[in-house]
Design goal:
By secondary structure, the chain is α+β, with helices and mostly antiparallel strands. It folds into 2 domains: 109 residues, no CATH class; 112 residues. Helices cover 39% and strands 24% of the residues. It has 8 helices and 8 strands, in the order H-E-E-E-E-E-E-E-E-H-H-H-H-H-H-H. The protein starts with a helix and ends with a helix.
Length: 249
Amino acid sequence: MRLIITFIIAMVARPLLAECGCPSEATSKHVLISTGGGTSLGFVVCGYEEQRRARKVRGSEFQVFRCGDKYPALEFDALQTADLIDAGGGLNIVQVSNWPFGKGWSWEFVPVAETTLNFEAPQPDWRPRLPKPAVSNRDVRTFIKHYISDVERLGRAYAPDENVVAQLFTAMAAGNADAARLFQSMRQDVNLDGAAAEIYEIARAEYALGRPANSPLQRTQPRSSSHRRPASQTEFCHLKGRAAERQRR
């Protein structure tokens, strides 16, 4: 009889120890993932679920709490997405973002940066993960040639859409020096507004987070957009000539 009672108590208590729930202070009460078996050593993530595959959960607009703590250790807004994995009681977080990094400028989710939270390190220490795009050098050169032509012809009247911003960012991430120069001066060279301006700022932030500090391209990125100067007409002509020369190769 004692054995049966002990078994019943264990089965009743088990769900309570399986995970900790979202605190009342959480914006969302939906549990994306809970680690550490519900102990104070674990974490619970509360927010919007986008995808769930085996042990990996993809979410956005979420908050990360230490189990039993009402204050979030980390927060992601609606424009930020991450893959969440239980890392032996800790929490592995890989920030991902949708960019045209695939062949032929195809859009795909790519890792930006990664961190693991645990009892010893409850605060994020982001490691860069941004990969090199798979878009071809030929496609990059063709895009830059057309972009320079549009800027030269229209100047500040040119209002590129978010696809153009994303492709210029991708070309920079691919290692093209001309693209890096043009991306840095984009706010001064063209009229960025609405969704294009928003995706430009997201690209700048994710490039700074996702690229190693010793990356040659990282060193070309100024700290503030106010420090950028527009590319001069001479520089555009020079870049246009280089782009045309490379296109003929």
